[in-house]
Design a protein that fits this description.
binds magnesium ion, three-stranded antiparallel β-sheet, Rossmann fold, six-stranded mixed β-sheet, binds adenosine-5'-triphosphate, single chain, alpha/beta, about 40% helix, globular
Length: about 250
């Protein structure tokens, strides 16, 4: 589903942002991407979404093609608040579906169901300015989840949520992935979230952004996030990922 082959990228021609990055994600896989701030995680997602052009001669394919902005294959949830201030929660959540040509009534219906699932039933007609940051984030989540796209690119989607809401939405994400055979590339700073959700955790180091580890998560599916807290494999894998992240830092500082 994602095939990144030895990508080098520099924005200013002097400093490498990404260097020799290889990333392969199979259809149906859930891959978490972790690494220090500024290591190029968002840049990598932007490349996969076709928001950034690839330097000539380099190979990056998504679903067998060069990334194209607005592709039906891909739903991208940006890290920053990406709601349209002039649309209410329902129309924000339905936006991606409308753009893809779904009739408005049907798009609203699907979006309303998703808003309920992210805990925002009753807030359909609120404007973004009348919602809290976490609520706006959940509207953006509903928009992403509502899309039938096989590939989800998610940039710190649960970043500013309280612990309880986060748990609920992590479980919802796992459930949606199981039902729909989705492929997910998921950026997070939260290593326990990375291990809990993913099949593999890919760890990057910064300046230049390189991939320093690719850890397979030995946990069965279906998973329940709450039950993982007492799972030995969960803690062992967490420690392993943490160590790689730390080594990336030592390498960087040295
Ligand atoms: N459009 C751009 N022009 C110039 N430099 C950029 C651009 N976008 C990103 N960068 C630089 O590329 C590097 C990687 O940025 P990126 O946003 O991908 O990091 P990140 O891993 O997502 O960080 P964070 O965890 O803080 O979100 C940073 O040094 C950033 O300053
Ligand atoms: Mg980022």
């Amino acid at each position: 589903m994602i095939d990144v082959q030895h990508i080098d990228l520099s924005f200013d021609g002097t400093q490498w942002v990404l260097q020799g990055v290889d990333l392969h994600v199979k259809s149906g896989e859930f891959v978490a991407l972790a690494g220090p701030s500024g290591c190029g995680k968002t840049t990598l997602l932007n490349l996969c979404a076709g928001l950034l052009d690839l330097p000539p001669g380099q190979r990056l394919q998504v679903a067998g093609q060069a990334p194209k902005l607005g592709s039906r294959e891909v739903a991208y949830m940006l890290a920053r608040d990406s709601l349209f201030p002039w649309l209410n929660a329902l129309d924000n959540a339905a936006f991606g579906l409308k753009v893809r040509g779904m009739p408005i009534a049907e798009a609203r219906d699907r979006a309303a169901k998703m808003l309920k699932q992210v805990g925002l039933g009753g807030f359909e007609y609120r404007m973004p300015k009348a919602l809290s940051h976490g609520m706006r984030q959940r509207v953006a989540l509903a928009r992403t989840f509502a899309m039938p796209s096989p590939l989800l690119l998610m940039d710190e989607p649960f970043g500013s949520l309280d612990a309880q809401t986060k748990l609920q939405l992590q479980d919802l994400l796992l459930q949606l992935c199981q039902e729909g055979n989705r492929t997910v590339l998921f950026v997070t700073h939260d290593l326990s979230e990375a291990v809990a959700l993913a099949d593999r955790v890919v760890v990057m180091s910064s300046r230049p952004g390189r991939i320093v580890a690719d850890v397979t998560v030995p946990l069965e599916r279906p998973r329940s996030i709450r039950q993982l807290q007492t799972n030995e494999n969960f803690h062992r894998t967490y420690a392993q990922v943490w160590k790689h992240l730390e080594e990336g830092w030592v390498h960087h500082e040295g």
